[in-house]
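[SOLVED] Predicted holo structure with NAP

Edit: marking solved, answer below. Original request kept for reference. I posted the sequence and ligand SMILES and asked for the 3D complex as structure tokens.
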Amino acid sequence: MKDAFGLPQSLLVLGGTSEIALATARRLIARRTRTVWLAGRPSSGLDEAAEKLRGLGAEVRTVAFDALDPAAHEDTLGKVFAEGDVDMVLLAFGTLGDQAHDERDPQAAVRVAQTNYTGAVSAGLVCASALQAQGHGSLVVLSSVAGERARRANFIYGSSKAGLDAFAQGLGDALYGTGVHVMVVRPGFVRTRMTAGLPEAPLATTPEAVAAAVELGLRRRAETVWVPGTLRMVMSALRHLPRGVFRRLPV
Ligand SMILES: NC(=O)c1ccc[n+]([C@@H]2O[C@H](COP(=O)([O-])OP(=O)(O)OC[C@H]3O[C@@H](n4cnc5c(N)ncnc54)[C@H](OP(=O)(O)O)[C@@H]3O)[C@@H](O)[C@H]2O)c1
């Protein structure tokens, strides 16, 4: 169960090698989290991530999970919930793709959409139903500012995050009053392997800063979290710019 401050004892990470997710797991283990499930595509990276969290004192198990295989989600994730209550699910998987390449390769673009959006629809609904059955818990969804307004430079990723964000908001409304809390996290540019080699955007931040914002959001039972918080105002302005102006911005 979560403590009086909303922090989880047990955590399920979907996208178990995500740098943002692992920073969040480390932070939560330092607070109260004792049991962690890392769900992800089997790899040495997933095993190493689990081992590192064990070194911090948590009981950690891995489970094979592929966002691109939604038909398996109910079975895979159902087995995790069957082992005991999960206080928090962190939906962290995602892929940036390669916009220039993917514009010429529609199947690659579809994989971005299927990973970030339809994979999340499937896993999100499976987890929401399990959380509802246990009567409590938080589903924390790593969306992105990229979903606020699609940019020329990454509209394939951005549109998939827009879909994910809208889905998570609607799911949060559907679950309102059930004891299950959905929190949408919208980071800007975070320095992880996902963004390695890309030119850094203004207000760039770190996985640790996202983790701190997630903790604060859980304590406040927030529905939306921007990281850094100033992006809320920035994106509010950008969202309302006329298309012709937005198109010419170097973003
Ligand atoms: N970094 C940023 O600037 C930023 C900003 C805003 C939002 N976000 C979002 O935050 C989340 C975490 O990103 P991150 O920065 O921590 O990047 P990351 O370290 O590259 O993590 C991405 C995760 O997604 C997993 N993944 C990719 N395709 C998958 C699939 N088909 N099935 C299961 N897992 C899959 C990866 O697993 P493998 O190890 O198997 O590849 C990895 O665990 C993503 O949703 C991302 O879109 C990131």
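OP edit: The chain has a mean pLDDT of 96. Thanks to everyone who chimed in.
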